[in-house]
């Protein structure tokens, strides 16, 4: 069985790829630029672009299972492109990375970010292929953006101060994805992935400071300042989608992101990693 991993050089896809390879599975990494992938020897690397459907048939040739992830405002079209080609090339099962909120927010009240994921999910679930959908909450690794502040003046800045979020460790997302790709019984299942606790940004900063043994201070910034940073990293359209979701969460005051779900433990048979667990594993990133 050959498993294709998209986003193979990214935060989640790279972890999924490494786990599958270490366990001895036949894996193929999809990337737009194989020459820059720098993946371990023994991993087949193919060049393709989810935005260019004509590049996908060769990448999917001989593949039985796919880990599918894409980001930003192109997600709906990129996922649909791969699903359409997968139907023609004999793929049997796709594990798709989506986002928490698709089931928690009604479609008519959704944000652009939610609608992109909703449409991507629909392309898969209506394809006739076997599917598993992973809906993670926000990633704990977002806190890596605080590393420079932690090393510098100790002032961590964010537009969200007191909104609880049950953030999830990307390691847990990858572990669940690998189980879904390699074990029977996950077809037709949707998993909501969160950590074991809901913490505000202030509380996260306090935990991080405790782990690092440093005095860190939280400072709230405007959404406009946050949007400028997001646009520089991910582009204007994606920044607008993220900010729209953020504004809605702050205005409502009752956000689903603070809800806890048991699916990580249900799939893995252990508790989800906490933010303190994550911080202790990443102290070197703040050194």
Automatic annotation (TrEMBL):
It comes from the Bacteria. Pfam families: NAD_binding_10. Residues 7-184 form the NAD(P)-binding domain. Gene3D superfamilies: NAD(P)-binding Rossmann-like Domain, UDP-galactose 4-epimerase, domain 1. InterPro entries: Ergot_Alk_Oxidoreductase, NAD(P)-bd_dom, NAD(P)-bd_dom_sf. Coiled coil: none annotated. This is NAD(P)H-binding protein. It comes from Streptomyces noboritoensis.
